[in-house]
Amino acid sequence: MDKSILLEKFTIIGINHQLADVAVREKFSLSYEEQRELLRDAEGHGINGLIIISTCNRTELFATTSDAELLSILFARHARGDIKEFHEYGFIKHGEHAVKHFYRVAVGLEAQILGDLQIIKQVKESYKLASDSGLADSTIHRLMQSVSRTHKRTRNETSLGAGAASTAYAAVQMAKRHMKQLSGKKVLLVGAGKIGKVTCKNLIAMGASDVTVINRNMTRAERLGMRFPIEVAPIKNIDIEIARADLIIVATGAPHAVINTGHLDLCDPEGNPKMMIDLSVPRNISDEVGNLPFVHLVNMDMLSDTLDETFRDRQANVPKVEAIISEEFEAFCIWLSELRVVPTIKALNTKFDTIRRQEISRFKHKLEGETLNEVEHLTQRIVNKIIAHSIEHLKENQGKTEEVTRIIQDMYKIGNEL
After folding, report:
1. CA 65 to CA 313: how far, in whole Å?
2. Active site residue 56
3. E strand or H helix at 158, and its extent?
4. Burial class, 46, CB count within 10 angstroms (exposed 0-12 / middle 13-18 / buried 19+)
5. Whose CA is closest to 19, among 80, 110, 151, 128?
6. pTM of structure
């Protein structure tokens, strides 16, 4: 089985935390609407399969095309970074390297927090958007089934997802380590979306007892307040709540800073120092806030899970996870190999059925109604058995699929029908 031929149409390009800092990544982050526009643009350029993964640590485009330059141009067109910056900080992978990278991203091996529990949800959401936009072809669909199965196996057969396997967990753990304890500290959480919910859950679990949530959509904040023992405040009170808080964690989907130095005018410079953690990309806390002497500002690039007590255990499971990926990847390649012979099988079936019909037509006038039906049924069974034998032969020769397919095409002169 020649994987280079099977996988020649797969390409992945992107910007991630391994190659670019948050200042660069935020230029290439894509909002939901920007992703939709990029998908429409890609379809207009003849791309049939495209998944866009845009998270705080990466924006990557996985497509069933070999035209990496077209993907790069489309990416830069819909991002705030330009093509020159992409080529400086981005990456391009083709074929087997592209597909295996997609598996690794989905299970959390490429995540900033090893085994990140959130990434598979983000990948599935990206696939749904692609599907809803008509850019999840049969190959992408089958690959996503394989990726989902791979992720499930890594969770059931290894402990990769144990401990601090999310940026939200790592952020709260860092805060607890920095502040000694969260109990008795006033915490302000800005944002009640997906990351905000997980962060809130981790805050409570790690001992925070005085948490206030602010969200532009008050209903969403109140809904979170019904799940956890927290207070809810309106967005207009953000300056007051920042002044009260010891720890401020910001996780919104805003495409710009929602907190700048002006929001800290009510703070006492001589009072208790404040820790501020920005879990957003693009960043939601202005860089200038970090220059204030009483503020310790942390962004996504500063988060790490290496000090978590489960990190070594998760790291030890990486070879097991890679073995699972290899198994599922090989199974996907076998499916691709079988898919490549489908046109030959269909053409062969058409060829045999045409011969069958032609031969029956020569004797049709000599056959009565019931006898004709029996002949039709019998000859169809013969054709089906011959086709089944051909399919079985192709499956038994997976490593020689191309060679066997060509032999069959030459033998039955069906090359022109494909």
Report:
1. 38
2. yes
3. none
4. exposed
5. 110
6. 0.83
Q: Is the preceding peptide bond at 273 cis, omega within 30 degrees of 0?
A: no
| CA nearest to 193, candidates 300, 280, 259 | 280
Nearest to 59 by CA among 97, 93, 99, 91: 91
Domains annotated on the chain, with CATH: 3-163 (3.30.460.30), 167-304 (3.40.50.720), 341-417 (no CATH)
Residues whose CB falls within 8 Å of the CB of residue 225, separated by 6 or more in sequence, listed in order = 213, 231, 232
Q: How do the pLDDT tens digits run along the chain, 418 residues long?
A: 567 788 999 999 999 999 999 999 999 999 999 999 999 999 999 999 999 999 999 999 999 999 999 999 999 999 999 999 999 999 999 999 999 999 999 999 999 999 998 999 999 999 999 999 999 999 999 999 999 999 999 999 999 987 767 899 999 999 999 999 999 999 999 999 999 999 999 999 999 999 999 999 999 999 999 999 999 999 999 999 999 999 999 999 899 999 999 999 999 999 999 999 999 999 999 999 999 999 999 999 999 888 787 888 999 999 999 999 999 999 999 888 877 776 777 777 787 888 888 888 887 777 777 788 888 889 889 988 887 877 777 666 655 666 667 777 777 677 655 5
The DSSP output letter for 230 is -
| Residue 409 CB partners (closer than 8 Å, separation 6+) | 344, 347, 415, 418
| Distances 133 to 41, 73, 76, 146 between C-alpha atoms, Å | 11, 20, 20, 21
